[in-house]
Design a protein that fits this description.
It is an enzyme of class 3 (hydrolase). The chain has about 240 residues and is an alpha/beta fold. The chain has helices at about 20-30, 50-65, 85-95, 120-130, 145, 150-160, 165-170, 175-185, 205-215, 220-230, and strands at about 1-5, 35-40, 40-45, 75, 80, 105-110, 135, 160-165, 190-195. The protein has a 6-stranded parallel beta sheet with strand order 3-5-6-7-8-9. It has a 3-stranded parallel beta sheet with strand order 1-2-4, sandwiched between helices. Helix 4 (about 120-130) links the parallel strand 6 and strand 7.
Length: about 240
């Protein structure tokens, strides 16, 4: 399996605190069946994790994995919080952050927690016109998506993807988040699945999430989501 959203790089955001915790997360992930992880530190008003910095930190942690015989391949990425349309356009055009995958075809685009950006549909269209698919992380955790499900419907219909977090399926992010995640599964609006792991307590569990989706929507749906996640790191369009 591949985890496309994980805060495993230590000391650069609210994820792993140190190398020991990064290694512990990786060992847990490997035991769970994960063999690829996209490291996605935050890029927001609190953390300025630039492209070169994340690439360097990813290479350092990969070396530590290799030295400790942890058979996981790391890929650099980023969770980009939408500050404004103008800021995002500049960040994309100046290649300021790590996209997901090798060919800058996917971006993990997080909404603000305080409010929904009404320019998001325009932003999605702008990205798609440039061959970039926006992946909306954990929509089930955002109150405005739960209260106004037509917002996520509009983005999905335009071509954006969603990424539901396994913790939400386990009920760890509130009953409301679980209920909306179930709604997204029923609507076939779960495009990708990830752990959004931050530490060994909020750990990188992925297999149980695929089991959950398989139970609710069938094995074929779970396999489709897994294949789509692998497609993110492929050099071929998904």
């Amino acid at each position: 399996m591949i985890d496309i959203h994980c805060h495993i790089l230590h000391g650069i955001d609210d994820g792993a605190n140190d190398l020991a915790e990064s290694l512990a997360m990786a060992r847990y992930a490997y035991q769970d069946g994960i063999c690829h992880i996209i490291a996605t530190p935050h890029l927001n008003i609190h953390y300025n994790n630039t492209r070169a910095y994340v690439q360097n930190k990813t290479a350092i942690l990969q070396k530590a994995f290799d030295q400790n015989n942890i058979k996981i391949t790391l890929h650099p990425g980023c969770e980009v919080q939408l500050k404004s349309k103008q800021t995002l356009y500049r960040q994309v055009e100046q290649n300021e952050f790590c996209f997901l995958g090798p060919d800058a075809r996917y971006v993990l685009l997080e909404q603000r927690w305080t409010d929904y950006d009404p320019e998001t549909p325009e932003i999605v269209a702008w990205l798609l016109a440039r061959g970039i698919t926006p992946i909306i992380p954990h929509p089930e955790r955002h109150v405005f998506f739960r209260k106004q499900p037509e917002l996520i419907n509009q983005l999905v219909n335009a071509g954006a993807w969603t990424q539901v977090s396994v913790d939400s399926l386990l009920g760890n992010n509130s009953q409301e988040a679980l209920d909306y995640a179930n709604h997204l599964i029923a609507a076939n609006h779960v495009h990708t699945l990830a752990t959004d792991a931050h530490n060994i307590k909020r750990k990188p569990s992925l297999a149980i999430g695929y089991e959950y989706i398989s139970d609710r929507a069938g094995k074929a749906r779970a396999a489709e989501i897994n294949a789509r996640c692998y497609g993110v790191i492929s050099s071929k369009p998904n």
